[in-house]
Amino acid sequence: MSASQDATPPLLSVQQLCIDIGLGTVARRVVQQLSFDLHAGQTLCIAGESGSGKSLTSLAIMGLLPKAARVSAGRIDLAGRNLLTLDEPALQGLRGKQVGMIFQEPMTSLNPLMTVGQQLQETLRRHEPLPRRALRQRVREMLESVRMPQVDKRLEQYPHELSGGMRQRVMIAMAMLCRPQVLIADEPTTALDVTIQAQILELMRELQQQYGTSLLLITHDMGVVAEMADRVVVMNHGRTEEQAPVRQLFTRPQAEYTRRLLAAVPVLGTVAEPQDLSGEPPVLQVRDLCVRFPLQAGWFEERKQVHAVEQLNFELRRGETLGLVGESGCGKSTTGKALMNMLAYQGSVKLLGKELNGLQGAELQAVRRDIQMVFQDPYAALNPRKSIFDLVGEPLLIHDRLPLPERQARVAQLLEQVGMPADAMQRYPHQFSGGQRQRICIARALSLNPKVIIADESVSALDVSVQAQVLELLERLRQEHQLSYLFISHDMAVVERICHRVAVMYGGQIVEIGPRDQVLHNPQHAYTQRLLSAVPLPDVDRRRDFKSLLQEYQQPSPIKPQGFEMPVQAFAQRGREHWVAV
Length: 582
Description:
Elements: H1 3-7, E1 12-21, E2 28-38, E3 43-47, H2 54-62, E4 69-78, E5 81-82, H3 88-94, E6 99-102, H4 106-109, H5 116-127, H6 132-145, H7 151-155, H8 164-176, E7 182-186, H9 194-211, E8 214-219, H10 222-228, E9 231-236, E10 239-245, H11 246-251, H12 256-263, E11 282-294, E12 304-317, E13 321-325, H13 332-339, E14 346-351, E15 354-355, H14 361-367, E16 371-374, H15 378-381, H16 388-400, H17 404-417, H18 434-446, E17 452-456, H19 464-481, E18 484-489, H20 492-498, E19 501-506, E20 509-515, H21 516-521, H22 526-533, E21 559-561, E22 571-575, E23 578-581
């Protein structure tokens, strides 16, 4: 923060803020005496793990706390006005006009029944009664400001017709329409791929400079903090652990919790060279894998299909972790589901020499002992009506028909393997944190002693410290049981931490595959280079200019006429086991 900012009064001031959930004797304090100042043109980051009170603080500023929560003490001043004393009509006049907010999940924040143009115009009409033509022009200009391609087409589309990055751009445009003094961004890039994340961060920088907006950025990603912040507040369980300028926080952290948080952040280039497993036999062999989905066509329309995955070829060796990386929509998760025979595909998939394509019924059930999947969202993957014992023990009941006492002993052993107490089996999924639920999913996947585990974005939704624990667990289990992992992710630093080899997917095809260090530190394909250039680094001395990433990297359309066959992908060798599409 500059000396001139110190001398001027803050635009937004939060003093001794306390937030409680519940009433009377059951009330629990979730934010404890939080204080910070946000000055004009400044970026203040509130960092911390899930449950630290970051999002509740932003909702308190907006006057949008859930009914179960209330501000029990403190004050929130915006340009000298205490927001806690204002009634709802007054707050509605402020929201969008003086304080804008970008929510974490744009799909749940946008109305699915209204087009993008209708929603943006409604927001603007609430604060500025402009003529219809002026409304539409202002909306068009703002969408152009956030670098939305084909603006006129997007205005007529519904949220579900847009990609995640485009929906987030709509949210930013909506928040900036009335040019608010303060923009609150609550985890605006958590669910996005690194390249889309970089585009959104650069976009927020540009809009901040263009409109002189102050930015309150809430995140658990310390790479984003290093890239964006002027000043940082670190929160833990509702309390302020540390508050400092960004350079001081990263170079001389004072609080032990801050040091642990920074140490847990995976950083590219800090992991030792992995073990060479090139001599191990393959357990999974994939040849010419193709997944295509037919599109519904009208009477006189040409029949088309989506080429989601095209001509994938790779092997997974015993005890090896192969990373499958790329942006959303490139076909990573579709590949994982095809390998599990969860959808129809063309080509050959062999597990321990046995062909999986075409298996059904008892044959498929028998094969699934040896190949299991850990899904991205552990809460959605666990039946909320079943206890942990039922969930983890279900494969033992279906495949081995173990009697109750033996199942109980085996479930207790599995929970212990993943660092969970045995008494957890009597509880239900909602009683555990995200990291604990993911451990339960891993225990379930291990129950039948599989040879291959497909981990589909299994740590992407976790905080850095919990993420580090789960990655250590996966690595320990791999060594103990000679497991092979297909590790699907878009986080390159996480991939470096756990993988032996890396395959990069783009447009449904692999464009580069090879040893981890060769692909991540000497990328040969232009798309791999772009992907790596977008990774945010937790280093204040290495802030990058993401302007080049604002130009969309045009992926080829996956929609092709029915019967169309993609040309065979040619590869050139760039090193030992390092192949690049040409």
